[in-house]
Write a structure and sequence with these properties.
10% strand
Length: 97
């Protein structure tokens, strides 16, 4: 590619980029006049999350084998996945050390 073609291609690319990044020319939208609150209150009917690991038999303690040498497995945390492994319709938990 010659220098002239490169300059023309660069100029066209720059012009397209500037045209795409131009200022917005449309007027801002006005908010609809409603008397409803912006956020509706949520009725709190108890705990959202309940720890049921012990009653379901899940006993997992992560031990990363820290040696202080910063190997890749030491720096990466454990993982958890939920899937229906046995096709019984219930989610099974898969915990990776």
């Amino acid at each position: 590619m010659t220098t002239r073609c490169a300059c023309i291609a660069g100029g066209l690319a720059l012009a397209g980029w500037l045209a795409a990044c131009g200022a917005e020319t449309t007027a801002p939208r006005e908010a609809a006049g409603t008397s409803a609150p912006a956020v509706l209150p949520i009725e709190h009917d108890g705990d959202w999350f309940v720890d049921r690991a012990a009653e379901s038999g899940l006993d997992f303690v992560h031990a990363n084998g820290m040696t202080g040498s910063f190997y890749q497995p030491e720096m990466m945390g454990p993982g958890v996945g939920f899937l229906d492994y046995d096709n019984d319709g219930d989610l099974d938990i898969y915990v990776v050390q």
